[in-house]
Amino acid sequence: MPTGIKGKDDNQKLGLLALVAIVVSSMIGSGVDGLPQNMAANSEVGPVAIAWLICGFGMFFISRTFIILSNIRPDLQTGIYTYTQQGFGAFCAFIVAWGYWLMTIFSNVAFGIMVMDTLNYFIPGDFRGGNNITSVIGVSILVWGFNFLVLSGTKLAGKIDIVGTIAKLIPLIVFIFILVYLLNVTEITSNIWGNNPSLPQEHLGSVFSQITSPLDVALWCFIGVEGAVALSGRAKNKKDVGKATFIGFVISLVVCILISILPFGVMTQKELSVIPTPSTAGILKVVVGEWGEMLINIGVLISVLSSWLAWTMICAEIPMAAAQNGTFPKSFARKNDKGAASVSLWASSILMQLVVLMVYFSSNAWLAMLAISALTVLPAYLMSTAYLCKLCMTGEYKKYAPNGRKTALVTSLIGILFCLFMVYASEVKYLAMVPILLTLGLPLFIFARIKDSGERNIFQPEEMKFLIFLIVLDLFTGFLFLNDTIKF
């Protein structure tokens, strides 16, 4: 019996191309087609470029962290979770796994909102905003459709994702080439920093505020760079994980920067800031006509659906890996006869359905999902870079690799500083939600400790300190909310 299961699992392994497709598909999802408007909402082209340089620089070292760790610790599968467990214990690992799981759930719901909003182009009035009744029904159907697709096996889902990734890149490449051809240098340089004295009506405030304003959007576009690491347990060759991470990062970075910067060469910041989502479609409608808008909208549907598939695969993998290590309840580790993480996937889909129902009451559902997703992933990035730093500082790094310790240390330190900077630059009302969302997962951890592990002391002394810190943050958030300092 065990041999048969192993054989089925081996048949579900992913090659380099599939892993690259998952990284690119995870990063270039619904966010990329909203970039022109999202980045230009409060910023001119100069600050937008700097925002990308900052985020790209920081995420390069985050991706390098995952590459280094996947190379020196290929034994740690589903690294997003297990790196934290190895370095800082089960409770910190649970918080990271829970936060990352929430991020995948919120991201998938954001994909659903974008799909419905795009369908409104083809069926005007029925799906406006992506969060009306018909949209909620449509997103719910897709949530469960992807649930059953991934239940059919990781290999099948991976093959579909490769096709979807190639198909999604074609409209984006067309978009880039059209804007390069029509680029007006005078237009893009007329008010680079948003404070040209001759254009007082277009003054956008300080350069720093313009740089920080689109950072959460940029970060959200980079979420998924760890996709190959999250699915490392499914890789045919563990060495492919690092390669896929780097290749996917470069492809996605280049595409995102071009799509953000080039529109300033054909339209003004003020015009870009009011284009409805997906803004790439609105821009092509202005510059080439209806056919351009239709091309992009078709591309958006393909792009978002393939990203949704990739994230559904990742979403199911994290709780399963945590359950295998005893941090989530053991039931989450169960697989079906296709090797899919069935219990974890069902639980993920149920939570997604609940979030979809809550989205109905949100005034700006897509941006809310985007902001929350970007912040709930930061604990995973921070703890992974901290683990690499710990390996280097304690000398344990040399147990796994004879060379490269200094480079790895610099990589981890820059990654840590970047994560802390993103916390500083985040909008307070969404940042305040993070500790509350993380605390909501505690019943799962307590259940796993009591029932599965039989532990009498649920929290160890070091874990208790972290728990108290988390509760203090919750109380502080409640205080800010009651005093109307923040409003959700």
UniProtKB/TrEMBL annotation:
Membrane-spanning ranges: 50-69, 90-113, 133-150, 162-183, 217-233, 245-266, 294-318, 339-360, 366-388, 408-425, 431-450, 466-482
Name the membrane topology term.
Answer: Multi-pass membrane protein
| Keyword Transmembrane helix part of the UniProt annotation | yes
Q: Which GO terms describe its molecular function?
A: transmembrane transporter activity
GO CC term, one of those recorded: plasma membrane
The keyword Transcription regulation belongs to this UniProt entry's keyword annotation? no
GO BP annotations of the record are: amino acid transport
Q: Which NCBIfam families match?
A: 2A0302 (TIGR00905)
- Give the UniProt family note: Belongs to the amino acid-polyamine-organocation (APC) superfamily. Basic amino acid/polyamine antiporter (APA) (TC 2.A.3.2) family.
Q: Under which name does UniProt file this protein?
A: Arginine:agmatine antiporter
The species this protein was found in: Hafnia alvei FB1
